[in-house]
Design goal:
This protein is of the alpha/beta class and 241 residues long. The chain contains 9 helices and 7 strands; from the N terminus they run E-H-E-H-E-H-E-H-E-H-H-E-H-H-H-E. Bound molecules: NADP nicotinamide-adenine-dinucleotide phosphate (NAP). InterPro entries: Acetoacetyl-CoA_reductase, KR_dom, NAD(P)-bd_dom_sf, Sc_DH/Rdtase_CS, SDR, SDR_fam.
Length: 241
């Protein structure tokens, strides 16, 4: 029986690459998304991976959604907390709504997904929780007090939960990507990319979603059983934490 992996925000961007890589590695994969039905349907048509719509910021929706996934394909053994949003603004212009949307999705969403899955992982004495944070949670970023705080929170969450899971065979790790070549990046003007962004990255290029996905596949594997509570930077040398 193949292991079951659940990837939040797994229908596009980095999450889609993670879902596909886990599928290629032999996992039964379920992917969640927030509202973009068209992308999710196209992703399912392309990959055969079933998609589920719910808001990770809503605890009850997460609990119900996870129960549905487990009824459909079995107990979740690998959880990838990838869903995330930005609502950028300099602090003096940031609204309480921008703050709370990012905290609810990027930090509380990680609690809301991990908490209902945790008891089953403890009972089965196996689990993998892998959260996608960001380089900006490590170093901060102008106009991202909300995002940097939430992503730094994901790192603290990981370090604490890893201690609780260690004796139960559950590893908990966090990956901090730098600039990754997703749709979001393709909207950046070429001049800004060449003159501002690329010079900050010692390897001289953006990361590819598949490079993050391969890191997830490794952390999910039995081979990574001694790695827990770790913060893995994947940023081309841009920030060496
Ligand atoms: N791209 C980068 O360069 C970069 C760098 C560092 C870290 N990251 C982090 O990597 C992760 C993925 O980023 P990405 O650029 O691939 O994002 P993306 O292309 O914008 O995709 C985000 C995914 O998350 C889902 N999602 C968003 N809010 C959600 C919610 N409240 N509930 C459930 N699902 C939700 C989206 O669903 P819909 O399709 O329905 O909207 C989508 O599937 C994020 O956590 C991001 O912060 C990205």
């Amino acid at each position: 029986m193949s292991r079951v992996a659940l990837v939040t925000g797994g229908s596009r961007g980095i999450g889609a690459a993670i879902s596909k890589a886990l599928q290629a590695a032999g996992y039964s994969v379920a992917a969640t998304y927030a509202g973009n039905d068209e992308k999710a349907a196209a992703f399912t048509a392309e990959t055969g991976i079933k998609t589920y719509k719910w808001d990770v910021a809503d605890y009850d929706a997460c609990a119900a959604g996870i129960a549905q996934v487990e009824a459909d394909i079995g107990p979740v053994e690998v959880l990838v907390n990838n869903a995330g949003i930005t609502r950028d603004a300099p602090f003096h212009k940031m609204t309480p709504q921008q703050w709370s949307e990012v905290m609810s999705t990027n930090l509380s969403g990680v609690f809301n997904m991990s908490h209902p899955i945790w008891p089953g992982m403890r009972e089965r004495k196996f689990g993998r929780i892998i959260t996608i944070s960001s380089i900006n949670g490590q170093k901060g970023q102008f106009a991202q007090t909300n995002y940097a705080a939430a992503k730094a929170g994901d790192i603290g969450f990981t370090k604490a939960l890893a201690q609780e899971g260690a004796r139960a065979g559950i590893t908990v790790n966090v990956i901090c990507p730098g600039y990754i070549n997703t749709e979001m990046m393709s909207t950046i003007p070429e001049k800004v990319m060449n003159d501002v962004i690329l010079p900050q990255i010692p390897v001289g290029r953006l990361g590819e979603p598949e490079e993050i996905a391969r890191t997830v596949v490794f952390l999910a594997s039995d081979d990574a059983g001694f790695i827990t509570g770790s913060t893995i930077s994947a940023n081309g040398g841009q920030y060496m934490a």
